[in-house]
Amino acid sequence: RVLGQNPGPFTLQGTNTYLVGSGKSKILIDTGEQNIKEYIDKLSEALGSDCKIEAIIITHWHGDHIGGIPGVIKLIGCDIPVYKFKRSDNVVETDYNYNYIDHDHEVKVDGATLQLLYTPGHTADHMAILHKEENALFSGDCILGEGSAVFEDLHSYMNSLNKFLEIKPDKIYPGHGPVVNNPQNKIEEYIKHRMQRENDI
Fold first, then answer.
1. Which fold has domain 2-200?
2. Residue 78, exposed/middle/buried by CB under 10 A (0-12, 13-18, 19+)?
3. Phi, psi (5° rounding) for residue 169?
4. Beta-carbon count within 10 A of 101 CB
5. What's 95-153 look like in SS3?
6. Helices (DSSP H) in the chain: which residue ranges?
7. How far apart are CA 162 and CA 166, in angstroms?
8. Which of 8, 97, 107, 157 is buried deepest, with most CB atoms within 10 A?
9. Which residues lie closer than 8 Å to 10 by C-beta, 6 or more apart?
10. The model's pTM
11. Among residues of the chain, what percentage have pLDDT more than 90?
12. What's the rounded Cα separation, in Å, for the pair 135 and 137?
């Protein structure tokens, strides 16, 4: 995990970004905010002199997840694929030339097969990523390490939480906050909390 160096009320300790892969080639999940030199320095330090990033996966369009793309590309020194789901047919994203993908697309690197799962709710383009070898889930902002998440669409969000229940991950790596070591409890807690809130309204 490489912390985005952007702590705040909405980002908690900061945006979690993740370097995935057991070999010299890595995949980076999310990129933090724009123009945060400390983050790029930490990322460079984590890579060391031997490792390189061969692809970026973006969980959703919010600035604290996509903002660091230009800085990461500059660090790498060449263009690489940036995988993402489309926001909608009506939204033209001009901030980067994304590689739009479909649900269940797989990206592979040494030691990791990553299955990209369409999990809307927090945003219309939200993605979670299943690390198949470790049965670990990168949950983006659908589930946080602490506190509750916000969402754009309740119905989609509940469907995504139920998808997580079916996956039964052994661990959740969230977009913000600490790693979740008891995923089923956390997912059930989120569903229960949301249902209680709806019943109260």
1. Metallo-beta-lactamase; Chain A (3.60.15)
2. exposed
3. -65, 155
4. 18
5. CCCCEECCCCEEEEECCEEEEEEECCCCCCCCEEEEECCCCEEEEECCCCCCCCCCCCC
6. 37-47, 63-66, 69-76, 154-167, 183-200
7. 6
8. 157
9. 64
10. 0.91
11. 74
12. 7
Name the CA radius of gyration of the chain, rounded: 16
Of 55, 56, 60, 179, the C-alpha closest to 127 is 60
Closest CA to 171 of 185, 158, 157: 185
Pairwise CA distance, residues 144 & 176, whole Å: 6
What are the sequence ranges of the domains in the chain? 2-200
Residue type at 159 in one-letter notation: N
| C-alpha distances in Å from residue 173, one per residue of 48, 104, 158 | 23, 19, 19
Q: What is the DSSP letter of 89?
A: T
Task: Give the tens place of pLDDT for each residue, 143-178.
Answer: 999 888 888 788 999 999 999 999 999 999 999 999
Amino acid residing at 191: I
